[in-house]
Model the fold of this input.
Amino acid sequence: GENVEQHPSTLSVQEGDSAVIKCTYSDSASNYFPWYKQELGKRPQLIIDIRSNVGEKKDQRIAVTLNKTAKHFSLHITETQPEDSAVYFCAASIAGSGGGADGLTFGKGTHLIIQP
Amino acid sequence: DTEVTQTPKHLVMGMTNKKSLKCEQHMGHRAMYWYKQKAKKPPELMFVYSYEKLSINESVPSRFSPECPNSSLLNLHLHALQPEDSALYLCASSQDAYRVDQPQHFGDGTRLSIL
Done:
């Protein structure tokens, strides 16, 4: 099955600086890569996603890049703010046996701490 | 506000009890999922329903029994659970059961404690 590795496990940055979180996946058939933000005691919230036919996607201060050849993808947050502090999970999805909906395989998460 | 609603928010039960977790969405999504999340860990997939049919069971013990009565509802029936089953149980849904690149939207979860 799919295996997703995520680094670093903890990332502390000064407010206003950029943060980068990296993930690698094992199965070349994976074709969908979402990122979720989870605050303490709350549900995972989708912040951005990328499909395998796209190399980069940006939404305001957040961007994701995908390198299919190397099987890795990254989350970039610019101009970090205190409210960006949370746990961030990357994930990968692969077609199920019937070619239909499949669950997500998550990385272990990165605890992002924004220092004021 | 989340569009996937889970009840109850908290549940405490003994190992001999039978209880059910409920999940509801009215977005017309045709794929629904159960995940289990332990503290400081990522969500782990348990079950996937596509068009109200169980399509994936990730080798979950039989003390967890999913049910999808209709396209808007997903239940998880619990019986004879163990203390290690204490966790946050998350429900999610996505629009198209035949595409894997659809965003999954999560509910707030049910925090389950087994005494």
